[in-house]
Amino acid sequence: MAVRTKQDAARALADASEDKRFFCQDGCVSKSLHQLAECLAHMTEDSYRHHVTPLRNDFSNWVRDVFGDDKLANNLTRCANRAEAVKALRDRIAWLQKKLK
């Protein structure tokens, strides 16, 4: 789903329900895009590689399945490392916040 309206942006920035939270291999738990960006910013590259392999990207899948943000999910799939993923998340969060105004 594309984020087209203020309601879509608000949904993408909202907290996920308790049963849809993301549990990272290193113990960090995310319920929002903001928290995911913080978890990624502080995790090791090894923890990142646990969730991102040539065959899957857990972060991308979570963003698509829980928040419905296909653009961000696709951007996360293209990230070569943790730093790029943090930047993609922070850039998208900033864009979504502008969309709300």
Order of helices and strands: HEEHHHHH
Distance between the termini: 21 Å
Return the structural class: mainly alpha
Oligomer: single chain
Q: What value does the Rg take, in angstroms?
A: 13 Å
Q: Give the proportion of residues in helices.
A: 55-70%
Biggest sheet record: 2 strands, antiparallel
Summed up, the helix count is 6
Sheet-strand content, in percent, reads under 5%
Pick out the low-confidence regions: none
Number of strands: 2
- Which strand order spans the largest sheet, edge to edge or round the barrel? 1-2
- Average pLDDT over all residues: 95
Shape by Cα distribution: globular
Number of domains: 1
Can you give keywords for this protein?
mainly alpha, 6 helices, two-stranded antiparallel sheet, globular, 101 residues, 4% strand
How do you describe this structure in short?
The radius of gyration is 13 Å and the shape is globular.
Task: Produce the secondary structure layout.
Elements: H1 6-13, E1 22-23, E2 29-30, H2 33-42, H3 45-51, H4 58-67, H5 70-78, H6 82-100
Antiparallel strand pairs: 1-2
Task: Describe, in plain words, how this protein is organized in 3D.
The longest helix has 19 residues, at 82-100. With 101 residues, this protein is mainly alpha-helical. It has helices spanning 6-13, 33-42, 45-51, 58-67, 70-78, 82-100; strands at residues 22-23, 29-30. It has one domain.
